[in-house]
Amino acid sequence: MVGIVLGSESDLDLMEPATAVLEGLGISYELTICSAHRTPERAAEYAKTARERGLLAIIAGAGMAAHLPGVLAAYTTLPVIGVPLSRSPLQGTDALYSMVQMPPGVPVATVAIDGARNAAVLAAEIIGVHDEAVAARLTEYRREQARKVDQSAEKHGRRRPA
Ligand code: RP5
After folding, report:
1. Closest Cα partner for 82 from 2, 5, 134?
2. CA–centroid distance, residue 93 to ligand 1 (Å)
3. Least enclosed by CB within 10 Å: which of 22, 102, 112, 117?
């Protein structure tokens, strides 16, 4: 199971792509809203109990001074994937720097700004190291992407003689 944690209800729309990917890959998840600044104790408790609750990875999305993934990472040795969200006048660069610049020894695997989809794929890849069924579904997911690109090439590709 994957844990998805959002810093605020206002982050929901930007994080839904992660749930869609996990559902498509047949991976169960739990989603909660928990703030590193407004509910710091619950954030710590969430991370401290994550492993015993059966989580294999945590995806944390937040904007602005986005300390949520870093705080979760401080309290667990599960992999934490951070999604910096474009919820600020700085359009997510603030959250990106906050997540990607973790101190040595406590990493947050940071994806692109608003990269919830890739966060879910990365979580699936982590699970797929030991779960062959998930690895097989990821292979099919890649094939499907390739098919779409090939279809686009067929539809829009052109050669214009001089
Ligand atoms: C962050 O501050 C949240 O993750 C959100 O992206 C941003 C704004 O939160 P709200 O004021 O909308 O609750 O902590």
Report:
1. 5
2. 14
3. 112
- Which residues' Cβ are closer than 6 Å to ligand 1? 7-8, 10-11, 35, 62-64, 85, 87
Mean pLDDT split into 10-residue runs, the chain, 162 residues = 97 98 97 98 98 98 98 98 96 98 98 98 98 98 97 96 90
CA distance 112 to 119: 9
What residue owns the CA closest to ligand 1's atom 12?
10
**Nearest one of 45, 23, 50 to 34, comparing CA atoms:** 45
pTM: 0.95
**Token digits for 158?**
């052109």
Query: 2-156 belongs to which CATH class?
Result: alpha beta
Please state the domain extents for the chain.
2-156
